[in-house]
Design brief:
Helix content is 0%, strand content 47%. It contains no helices and 25 strands. Strand 9 and strand 10 form a beta hairpin.
């Protein structure tokens, strides 16, 4: 259901419907440790930029923080939301952002694990939250819109409908909404992914928040659950309910490879050196 790679490029962590996390050795492909403590599907995981912290959230809204080296829990499990769909550490590791079914985004101090100020009221279910590479912006994808916030001042910079404003003619009865987000490494572009009514990737200019020429990217015919951009900013990968991962060339938004799976896809990420794509 979820995957994240450690900065050392030697390990990854996965979250599963079996209510556990697993630490993996990437070179050998073996499980190093099973992390237990959740009581429901673990659909969101994140690793701090220094690799010292793992955060995991489940569908009952429970959040657990783990030691990145040992895999031991650093906190008791605690109720963060009514359900958690997304987690992201700030680039400096000082804050963990969590998004939930209660239509809130919460910012947690990673030293005390207390809330920083009041939650951000997103007014709709939160599907994805992503800090910009500089940490200046926090992008939030809800069912009805994409929101850009200043996480320090809590000022809302921009709100736009994104995929919620688009639907194909033959799917007019299906509500379109925003599912996933990914920033390019320079922070100049934000990519968003849509659901069955608009299974495209849309590219947004972070200075104007207008769509970039050549957007949307088309290829999937079902919901896109996750998107990722490699560190060299040359490739993007998208995971879809059509049992595939597409590899895109960022320069011309062209599909250059399709990887087939036996079932629908929920997560995708690149190794930090960009040589591998990890999906599940």
């Amino acid at each position: 259901l979820a995957v994240a790679v450690f900065p050392d490029m030697r390990r990854m962590v996965t979250g599963s419907a079996d209510k556990t996390l697993r630490l993996w050795d990437l070179k050998g492909g073996v499980v190093l440790k099973k992390l237990e403590g959740h009581c429901d599907w673990v659909g969101a995981v994140a690793i701090s930029r220094d690799g010292e912290l793992i955060a995991s959230g489940d569908e009952k809204g429970v959040l657990i923080i783990w030691d990145g080296d040992t895999g031991e829990p650093l906190t008791q499990s605690f109720q963060a939301h009514s359900g958690i769909d997304s987690l992201d550490f700030s680039p400096d590791g000082a804050v963990l952002a969590t998004g939930g079914w209660d239509k809130k985004t919460k910012l947690w101090n990673t030293k005390t694990w207390r809330l920083q100020d009041k939650p951000i009221d997103c007014r709709d279910y939160v599907n994805c939250i992503r800090y910009s590479p500089s940490g200046v912006h926090l992008a939030i994808a809800t069912l009805g819109d994409i929101q850009i916030w200043d996480p320090n001042t809590r000022d809302c910079i921009k709100i736009f409908e994104g995929h919620a404003a688009h639907t194909s003619i033959n799917r007019a009865s299906i509500r379109p909404f925003n599912k996933s987000l990914a920033w390019t490494p320079d922070g100049k572009r934000l990519l968003s992914a849509g659901t069955n009514a608009d299974p495209t990737i849309r590219e947004w200019d972070s200075t104007s928040w207008e769509q970039v020429r050549g957007s949307p990217w088309k290829g999937h015919d079902k919901q896109i659950c996750a998107i990722a951009v490699n560190s060299a900013a040359t490739l993007a990968a998208s995971a879809s309910y059509n049992n595939s991962v597409r590899l895109w060339q960022l320069s011309d938004r062209r599909t250059i490879a399709i990887f087939r799976h036996s079932d629908w896809m929920r997560c995708v990420t690149f190794s930090l050196d960009g040589e591998y794509i990890l999906s599940g």
